[in-house]
Target: G-protein coupled receptors family 1 profile domain-containing protein
Amino acid sequence: MEGIIKFLSLFCIHFDSNTPDFIILAGYFLILSVFILLNVVNIMIYLLSIYIVSNEKILNKIPRKYMFIHKLLIYYKNIRVVYIISEFILLLICLFIMIWVTYSLVSFYIHLK
Model:
């Protein structure tokens, strides 16, 4: 539990050793939820850029004076392939840890009864 307390202190969520485990795990669950949300948003932005670049109708609607957006989207699509794989891996790791935290919270609640 000390490792989780140190991890949460990096995000300015400070607990001491007298704090109940349930509260500490709930804070950990909150931080992991934010990580997962950011991962999903990042993956969605990447998939949206792939859709825009592959769809000529959308690209033709971009005015000529904003053609740098078209070049930027193509560059973004080409450079992010390896990074998006690491995003998927990080997303799976965070989801696995959230399942573990949820299991810990439920088992802690069951032991209270």
About this structure: The chain has one domain: 2-112. Residues 2-112 form one domain.
